[in-house]
Each structure stands twice: as structure tokens, then as C-alpha cells.
Specification:
Blueprint: E1 2-10, E2 17-22, E3 32-36, E4 43-48, E5 55-59, E6 64-69, E7 75-79, H1 90-101, H2 112-122, H3 128-134, H4 139-147, H5 153-157, E8 162-169, E9 175-177, E10 180-191, E11 197-205, E12 210-211, E13 215-216, E14 218-225, H6 237-251, E15 261-265, E16 268-272, H7 274-282, H8 288-296, H9 298-302, E17 306-308, H10 311-320, E18 325-326
Parallel strand pairs: 1-6, 16-18
Antiparallel strand pairs: 1-2, 2-3, 3-4, 4-5, 6-7, 8-10, 9-10, 10-11, 11-14, 12-13, 15-16, 15-17
Helix pairs in contact: 6-7
Amino acid sequence: MKEIKVKKSRNEDDNYVELWKVIDPMKGVPQYYGRYTYKDEGTWYYVSDPLGYCELDRAVENDVMFICCDDSGKECVRYSNRDANPLPKFESVMKIRWEKICKNIDFNKENITANFWSESLNGESTMSVNQWLLSFMDPDLYGKEIAVMCGYDEIWTGSWHSKEIGYEDIPETEFIYLGHRYQFTKVTRKHKICGVEWNEFVCTDSPHVVSKEYGIQTYGYLGNWYDKTTTGTMFDKRTVRMMVQAELQKLYPKENKYSKLLFVSGNYCYQKSYEDVAKELIKNELHKNMVHDLISHLKERTQNSIFVSSNENRNKVKKLYPGIYGYDYCLW
């Protein structure tokens, strides 16, 4: 059986492909191989453009044995495509190790991927720690600092405005992956503007490494802890939108799951989703007292300006507001 010694060149990309480099390459043979890691499959592939797009070509023959080494070239594990995968990807090993020890740790588990897409598409954070941090983002207190953020909440919640002020190794959490020692570390962070503190649980080197320029070196985010009994004067955008949207559905029940609302504004009528109408009503007001006031008086404030979209209500709007313009033919 042919043997090839390789070491990992980079972690899994968006296509679930790890890139592995041949340690002693020979002329005329591939210098890189890909490892397909979706659901920890672990199949070895020939790859095209390894240092670029890194596209999978075809699976490597079953009689090729890959010797997976650490950075120094020392063998850690070996297997071929004929064998079951003995080397789960690092993320899987890290999560399994964390799940074994986290039962005794008070922390909040967050969905980083869901938060990324929500922030990208809607400008709303789904992470509880971000929503907690945003409760302190009061323009009455920090108007000048908030103004330069141009409406991007992630500037307030991100690393731009926080600093690491403490590190605590979590005992008995060390594990080895491809010859390298890792552990879990609790990092204490402090917001530079409002001053609140919280903890993040991360995977680090063992012992952890901190640089003056970039802070602690991390390999994975496991969760956080913050004082839920202490909050600020604000709501985050997502929480307010969901609160107002829920109240709209209570006042104007949907006839079916596709139901929308007729929204009268000035001499125009629009057909909008419950979510979009909620955003129209909220505008940029996120103060808790003002939001509660809006919700408690929503019925009288929206009387004869919001209707469930139906033929009956379209006729009602036209009778109430003769000459009103229905945007996108919403009153036809």
C-alpha cells in the first residue's frame, strides 16, 4: 500500500474541505490533498487549485494510506479511504470535549451562524449577550459615540468597543488534537463605553497565549455569561420588533399564514407584512418606556389606519379615505 505523509495546511472551508500538504512531495505528484469533512466523513480527495478555490476532483484510491502528522512531522493517526474516519474535524472534537465538562458551568449557548445571517440580512442580533449589551446603548447617555456607528449595532457589540481584562483557565479541560495541546479558558471582557462586564468561554492553547496586539489566541467560541439581573434602558431591534409584531397579530388576527396588513399613511395605503408594519411603527424608538407605551396604546393609535388585507377591508379603506392612492394596486 502506498503511504503519503501529510500535515494540515488549513481548516475546513465553506465547502467542508480541509487542505492537507504533503510533507515530502515528489516531482510530478500532488503536493496537496483535500479531506471532505461534512458530518465528519473524512474522505480523501484530489483537489484542483488547492491554494485558491480548492475544488474537489475525485476520491483518492483506497490503497493509498495517509499518515496524518503534527506540525513537526510526527505521526498522529493514519487511515485510507477504505477505513472508517478515525480523525473527526477539530470543531467536532472540541464540542464533544466541551459537552462533557460544561454541565457544571453556568453559561449561555449561542448560535453564531444564525446571528451572522440575522445581522447581515435584517440588522438584528439573535445572540442573547448582544441583546443584553444593546440594552445599554442609550443615545441619551452616549449620543456622540453612538452617532459615529451609523446604525450598525454590531459596532457596539463587537470587539471594537470591548477589551479583555481577565483570563481564567478552566481546570481539567486539556485535550490533544494532532499533537497540539488545547484547553478551555474563561475570558472576562469589559465594554469601553458603558463599562459593563461579561465572560466568554473559548478554546485556547494550553497554556493560553495572549499577545499585546491581538489579545488571547482562540480556536472556538463556546458560550458566554452575563448578569441577567442588570440591564439597561433600551431594547434591541429584534426584541422590539417581535413584541410589536405579536401585539399586531393579537389586534389584527391573521386569516391565514399568508395574511398581510393594509397600512394607511397620509394619502397612501400600502400592503405590508406584519413585520414591516411593526418596523414602521417602531421607527428608531428603542427606549423601554417608550416601547411599552407604544404597545399599551397600539389599538387606539392604529385605529382606522391598519386593517387585515381582504376585499372587505379594501372597500372599507376606500370609503373611509375617498381618493386615497393604493400603492402597488393594493386596493384593487
